[in-house]
């Protein structure tokens, strides 16, 4: 694999959430970007942290020397969102270039250090919906817990894959034994419902992820010749820490197959920090995994 000629694609646009379907009470898809601005050649530096709990992933992107019009577009619009894709030039392998983060822009700062002007984007992945979405509905006796979960996830406005829906269908099986008043923050209602079945969840790139689901159809093999930097090391609670070159598909919930002299087997990503500079320096992941 060609893992040296780093590349990125940064889009910023106005977030528009499709309406709820009146029959199902769900959205067919997550938010889309409108009035999109695209950059691929300016210098950017990013530091993104992702975790596998229900709190927003966070991060920061610094962009060098945007035009005044672009700076104003980002700074002045309220429902702004960005999508950062990263990878490597000169390859047709799809797993070497992809979405690293889709996030709300929660704050914008301008740092002027002549001759440069640096625009700093403070990010929160699904920040708005995880913080502000509220639920106020009574689910009647006999309603299925899985329908409650999927309805609440839809209210968050994030996507749910067919495979994830299938996992929820198999794992969240029972019906409500009495009327249930689902009031409060939507994320808390989802937490309570899934905890009954020993499950937890997170949002990654506008996608709803149940942490206990092992997607064995999407596995990245890492060794010391394919992007892994040094041997993985033992962490707390039986976990392992690893460091690798930046591969965008390695996010919480993804499965890695380590193949090194000291570490073999399948591990699931729990947390990851992504640091990159499109000109020089870091283009790496520092992550923690647990054995599958």
Q: Order of SSEs, N→C?
A: EEEEHEEEHEHHEHEEEEEEEE
Distance between the termini: 26 Å
Estimated helix fraction: 10-25%
> Unreliable segments (pLDDT under 50, ≥5 consecutive)?
none
Largest beta sheet, briefly?
A: 13 strands, mixed
Large-scale geometry:
flat
Radius of gyration: 20 Å
Strand content: 35-45%
Structural category = alpha+beta
Report the total helices.
5
Give the tally of structural domains: 3
| Total E-strand runs | 17
Mean pLDDT, rounded to whole units? 90
Tell me briefly what this model is:
The chain has helices spanning 68-76, 127-132, 145-156, 162-171, 186-195, and strands at residues 6-16, 32-39, 44-50, 58-64, 80-88, 97-113, 116-124, 134-139, 180-185, 201-204, 207-210, 219-222, 233-234, 240-245, 255-259, 264-277, 283-291. With 292 residues, the chain is of the alpha+beta class.
What this model shows, in words?
The structure is a single chain. The chain is α+β, with helices and mostly antiparallel strands and 292 residues long. It folds into three domains: 6-129; 133-210; 219-291. The protein has five helices and 17 strands. The strands form three sheets. Strands 1, 2, 3, 4, 5, 6, 7, 12, 13, 14, 15, 16 and 17 form a 13-stranded mixed beta sheet that branches. Helix 3 packs antiparallel against helix 5.
Q: What does the secondary structure layout of this molecule look like, with pairings?
A:
Blueprint: E1 6-16, E2 32-39, E3 44-50, E4 58-64, H1 68-76, E5 80-88, E6 97-113, E7 116-124, H2 127-132, E8 134-139, H3 145-156, H4 162-171, E9 180-185, H5 186-195, E10 201-204, E11 207-210, E12 219-222, E13 233-234, E14 240-245, E15 255-259, E16 264-277, E17 283-291
Parallel strand pairs: 12-15
Antiparallel strand pairs: 1-2, 1-5, 3-4, 3-16, 4-7, 5-6, 6-7, 8-9, 10-11, 13-14, 14-17, 15-16, 16-17
Helix pairs in contact: 3-5
């Amino acid at each position: 694999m060609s893992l040296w000629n780093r590349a990125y694609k940064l889009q910023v646009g106005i977030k528009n959430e499709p309406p709820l379907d009146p029959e199902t009470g769900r959205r067919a898809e997550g938010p889309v970007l409108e009035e999109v601005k695209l950059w691929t050649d300016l210098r950017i530096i990013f530091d993104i942290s992702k975790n596998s709990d229900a709190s927003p992933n966070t991060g920061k992107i610094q962009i060098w020397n945007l035009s005044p019009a672009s700076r104003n577009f980002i700074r002045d619009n309220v429902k702004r969102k960005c999508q950062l894709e990263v990878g490597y030039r000169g390859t047709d392998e799809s797993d070497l270039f992809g979405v690293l983060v889709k996030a709300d822009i929660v704050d914008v700062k301008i740092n002027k250090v002549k001759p440069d002007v640096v625009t700093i984007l403070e990010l929160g992945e699904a920040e708005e919906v995880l913080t502000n979405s509220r639920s106020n509905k009574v689910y009647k006796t006999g309603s299925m817990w899985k329908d409650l979960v999927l309805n609440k996830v839809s209210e968050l406005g994030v996507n749910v894959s067919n495979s994830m829906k299938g996992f929820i269908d198999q794992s969240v099986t029972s019906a409500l034994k009495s009327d249930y008043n689902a009031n409060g923050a939507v994320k808390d209602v989802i937490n309570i419902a899934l905890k009954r079945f020993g499950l937890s969840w997170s949002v990654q790139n506008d996608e709803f992820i149940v942490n206990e689901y092992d997607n064995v159809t999407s596995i990245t093999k890492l060794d010391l010749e394919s992007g892994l930097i040094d041997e993985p090391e033992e962490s707390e609670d039986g976990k392992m820490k690893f460091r690798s070159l930046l591969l965008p598909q390695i996010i919480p919930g993804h499965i890695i197959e380590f193949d090194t002299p000291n570490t073999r087997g399948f591990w699931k990503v729990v947390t990851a920090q992504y640091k990159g500079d499109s000109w020089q320096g870091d283009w790496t992941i520092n992550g923690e995994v647990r054995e599958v």
